[in-house]
Design goal:
The protein has 208 residues and is of the alpha/beta class. Helix content is 48%, strand content 15%. It starts with a strand and ends with a helix.
Length: 208
């Protein structure tokens, strides 16, 4: 499976493409890089550039899945809005090219790659470099984050854990027809869902 990982941004959009052969195999790097837009450009021009360049990457490598990191909002609301707009055109580029989209939080990505959801950036970069057998850490850091997102999907996308990881966790996914947040009828907590999935996987292994 060809997986595209994307770390959303407006100044820098990290991207990475890996090849994953399935459980028991090691993901292999195909290509990676970053889309950059200068602050001197108009916002609409920066968004257009992000969409144009990411579309070119998608058309070049034809990924079968896109792993996109969800946003972590800080106190700078203006910056957060612009980055959210960039994330919107990223999702649009994937959707327009019929690439299935899977969204992961920073905590989920760190948990998958490092084994610890509160790992720092250095640890994520180090483990990403090791997993992909790279001669040196990918630059910039946004690119390493994108590759980590792709690795996260490789580790969970073919497992029943995907049922837990890929729930709608963005605000857009939670907004219902009334315009208010909605759980979509799901009353089970995330922790309980994960426990049930792990139990089911254990039972399946015992049957083999």
């Amino acid at each position: 499976m060809i997986i595209l990982g994307v770390d959303p941004g407006i100044a820098i959009v990290g991207w990475g493409v890996i090849d994953y052969g399935g459980i028991g195999t090691k993901p292999k790097p195909i290509d990676f890089g970053a889309i950059t837009t200068p602050s001197t450009m108009k916002t609409e021009d920066r968004l257009f550039e992000v969409h144009r360049e990411l579309t070119a990457v998608i058309e070049r490598y034809r990924p079968e899945a896109a792993a996109v990191e969800e946003l972590f909002f800080n106190t700078n609301q203006k910056t957060g809005i612009i980055v959210a707009e960039a994330r919107g055109v990223i999702l649009l580029a994937c959707r327009a090219n019929n690439v299935p989209i899977f969204e992961y939080t920073p905590l989920q990505i760190k948990q998958s790659v490092v084994g610890y959801g509160r790992a720092d950036k250095h640890q994520v970069i180090e483990m990403t470099t090791m997993f992909l057998g790279l001669a040196k850490p990918p630059k910039p850091d946004d690119t390493a984050d994108a590759l980590a997102a792709a690795i996260c999907h490789a580790h969970t996308g073919s497992s029943r854990l995907a049922d837990f990881y890929n729930q709608p966790t963005s605000m857009a996914g939670k907004i219902g027809m009334s315009g208010k947040g909605s759980r979509g009828g799901r009353e089970t907590t995330g922790a309980a869902r994960l426990q049930a999935i792990l139990k089911a996987e254990k039972q399946n292994k015992n049957k083999r």
